[in-house]
Write a structure and sequence with these properties.
two-stranded antiparallel sheet, 15% strand, globular, 329 residues, alpha/beta, 5-stranded parallel sheet
Length: 329
């Protein structure tokens, strides 16, 4: 078994991973750090943004730098559950049925345009994402860890799409958006393409599957003071009482908030969590767990705006209360 690295060693590896990924995905450091935090926390990430902003490229880049086996499933209206899980096929040589694994049997699965496939196929992901296994014709097959899903969705095209139900959205630890680059960043994309003189870009592997599991084990050693944990609980509970919300975050949201804040703390170079870590990941963790009232659907109210409102209202634990008041120098 691989030795568990210290949080400091994991922080250095995380920095190397981000440096490699940013060779391909330009100008999205904060969003990429959130995606990496979701993976280090052991979860799955939904990347929701407009076409052409690097969602697929980011998923492939993380697979390369983390040394994971990568598969891509293009979600379409005619995709069947067996197309993801695999199925039994008749082998004439043995005169018996053998199981042929589907794309779910991988290290990192890119579920591309997940909202373009019917709910029955979307639901095929649920068992894999939550239980780390798939069941086909009554037989259960475990998925080898680490197993992570990076799913993409287009938030503006609704024709021919199937919005993810709340139960499946809740399975994603985070929902992240990249947004448009600045003009300088966009020119940087063009300049890098000119310099490498080819379309494909190969990134170096910083670790491998065993190394990633060790990094995830390292995250489990990070200190979370009670006041910070209660801050996560209070933020999640506050979304349920917000006047613009039909349904707020479940307790799973509070747990996800703590797990992601812990991973983000290591990425930023600490072995303990401060309230600022919680604030930084809050919109990505809680935003998709909030259901806005129907009468507000045509307004500018979103799950992220509700979370920002809650962050402004809930008192932040002080340094002395959090137990991390440290002398300078």
């Amino acid at each position: 078994m691989t030795d568990v690295p210290t949080p400091a060693a994991t922080s250095r590896l995380a920095a190397e991973v981000l440096d490699q990924v940013e060779r391909a995905v330009v100008g999205k450091h904060d969003a990429l750090a959130l995606v990496l935090a979701g993976v280090l926390a052991g979860g799955h990430v939904l990347i929701e943004d407009l076409p052409g902003l690097g969602k697929t490229l980011a998923a492939r880049s993380f697979a390369q730098t983390l040394g994971l086996r990568f598969t891509r499933a293009q979600f379409t209206p005619d995709l069947l559950p067996a197309d993801l899980t695999g199925s039994f096929v008749y082998d004439q040589r043995t005169a018996d049925f053998t199981f042929r694994p589907g794309p779910l049997f991988t290290g990192l699965l890119l579920a591309d345009e997940i909202n373009r496939t019917p709910p029955k196929t979307q639901a095929a992901l649920l068992e894999a994402m939550q239980e780390g296994q798939v069941t086909v014709e009554g037989e259960t097959f475990p998925l080898e860890a680490p197993f992570h899903v990076l799913a993409t969705a287009n938030p503006v095209e609704y024709e021919g799409t199937y919005p993810l139900p709340e139960a499946q959205l809740d399975r994603f630890l985070m929902r992240v958006s990249f947004g448009y680059p600045t003009r300088d960043q966009e020119w940087d994309v063009l300049q890098r393409r000119l310099d490498r003189r080819q379309e494909a870009q190969q990134l170096e592997a910083v670790t491998d599957a065993a190394g990633l599991r060790a990094m995830q084990a390292s995250i489990e050693t990070v200190t979370v003071e009670e006041s910070v944990g209660r801050y996560c609980v209070t933020l999640a509970a506050a979304t349920r009482d917000h006047p613009q919300v039909l349904m707020g975050s479940s307790p799973r949201g509070a747990l996800a908030l703590m797990l992601c804040a812990r991973a983000y703390a290591v990425i930023t170079g600490r072995d303990y969590v401060v309230p600022e870590d919680v604030k930084h990941v809050a919109a990505a963790v809680l935003g998709h767990r909030v259901t806005i009232r129907p009468e507000l659907w045509m307004s500018d109210v979103t799950g992220a705006s509700v979370v920002r409102s809650v962050l402004a209202q809930v008192p932040t634990p002080g340094a002395r209360e959090s137990g991390f008041e440290r002398p300078v120098g």
